[in-house]
Amino acid sequence: MTHKKMTPFQRWLSAELDSRDWSHAKLGREIDVFKGTVGRWLMPPDHPMHRQPSYESCRRLADLFGVDLHFILEAAGIDNFERDRNLTDLQRDTIALVKLLPDSALAPLYPMIRALLDERVQATIERTAQAQARARGDLDAKKADDESEAADTADSLDKVKVS
User: Fold this and answer.
1) d(CA 62, CA 73)
2) What is the pLDDT of residues 82-124, one digit of tens each?
3) Residue 138 CA from chain centroid, whole number
4) What is the value of pTM for the model shown?
């Protein structure tokens, strides 16, 4: 393939393979994909057999080569990259792991995850985090007390509304 027709991802991956003198088969073994898959990533983008690497493959490449995952995702043009750009590494990793779990494993976790989104649970989590920060001396005690008092007031108002 001529260098002009290569995507940023293809240029990067080709350079990584060349610098290590690795074959498609060697890379495939390292990240647990078929050598043919690696070959399809490196085919011209307009070739009918060309394939884009998956998010998981990009994550494995990042781990293997010690490269920032965002760099690889952007170079590969992975969909939803812009939307996911504001996620923390923990959120991205959690999403990637959740995608690998069958529904039967997710079913018992779902109610707990939904509960975390409840405003009252969020307020409790925030108060706990502030108390821990105060204990470590990371947060001004007065500011934390004011914020905690505001959260308590909001909880009290919620209870009045429910009554």
Assistant:
1) 9
2) 556 667 778 878 887 888 889 999 999 988 888 877 777 778 8
3) 27
4) 0.50
Distance of CA 27 to the CA centre of its chain: 23
The Cα–Cα gap between 76 and 86 comes to: 18
CA–CA distance, 143 with 137 (Å, rounded to integer) = 12
How far apart CA 35 and CA 102 sit, in angstroms, is 27
What's the gap between Cα 133 and its chain centre? 26
Give the span between the Cα atoms of 43 and 10, in whole angstroms.
Answer: 8
Displacement of CA 90 from its chain's centroid (Å): 6
Read off the tokens for 14: 């080709």
Distance CA(89)–CA(105), nearest Å, equals 23
CA distance 141 to 30: 50
Q: How far apart are CA 154 and CA 38, in angstroms?
A: 55
